[in-house]
Amino acid sequence: MEIPAIFASCPGSGMTASETWFQGTRPRITGRTVPFGQATADIPRHENRTPVVVVDADSLSDRTFRGDVVKDMKVRGFDIWLMTWIENADDLFDAFNTNADMVLGPLHATRSDKDLSDILSVSDSFVPTVFAVGGKAVLRKAGRDSVDGVLARLTEMGFYRTCVVDTDGSLDGAWESLRSDYPSLMPFTRSVESTEALSGQRIGCLWPPRFSL
Would strands 136-138 and 144-146 be described as parallel, antiparallel, or unpaired? Predict the structure, then answer.
């Protein structure tokens, strides 16, 4: 299943959506910016209710949870999966105090493994999201490790579903092996076409960036 992702922001004049992708682990605008409702009108409609990922670009840029995007987040007819900055269980409670059906949070944003365990005990609708830069997973305090090793540890902690953001295309050619080892892994790439050989859930930008960062 192809799941579209919309990068959202609240610059002070209403909620907007932009052509955006990640430079490292931070979102960077690469093209047009329009009112959020205009972007949601471009989401393909299906007979059955399907998910859409709303990326909270403000929180990911500021590296702190903000409520500006989540309080105005509305996408009628779709389940909303919110990607935002989650450090601990308190942030997760705030994120779910909206109309989000699932929350995706960067692994490197969590304060510790204990906080990550606390988050899991609060809700099984939290998906730890591993950012890959240069083929390596980004850890807390700018650490690096193999993507496979990080996914193995998350599985051991009890997370049956994970997401991996390939920020720079460095995982091209590795997805089949990763999905084989972790069947519930969701790839998140600039465009879902880069993972079209995979079955199952795949996330890609509703508006793929016009150029790479």
Answer: antiparallel
101 part of a folded domain: yes
149 compared with 191, residue with greater pLDDT: 149
Compute how many other C-beta atoms are within 10 angstroms of the C-beta atom of residue 47: 5
Domain residues for 63?
2-205
**Which residues are registered as beta bridge partners of 16?**
9, 35
Cβ contact 105:123 at 8 Å: no
Is residue 120 a part of any domain in this protein?
yes
Alpha carbons 67 and 58: distance in angstroms, whole number: 9
DSSP codes of every residue in 89-120: HHHHHHHHSSS-SEEEEEGGGSS-HHHHHHHH
Q: Is residue 170 part of a domain?
A: yes
Model pTM?
A: 0.95
Place of tokens 């579903």: 161
Number of domains into which the chain is organized: 1
8 A C-beta contact, residue 107 and residue 130:
yes
Q: 202-205 and 185-189 as β-strands: parallel, antiparallel, unpaired?
A: parallel
CB 175 within 8 A of CB 206: no
Report the CATH number that the domain containing residue 134 is assigned in CATH.
3.20.20.70
Query: Predicted confidence band at 211 (pLDDT cuts at 50, 70, 90)?
Result: low
Q: Which helix (H) or strand (E) holds 93?
A: helix 89-96
* pLDDT tens, position by position, 24-70: 999 999 999 999 999 999 998 888 889 999 999 999 999 999 888 87
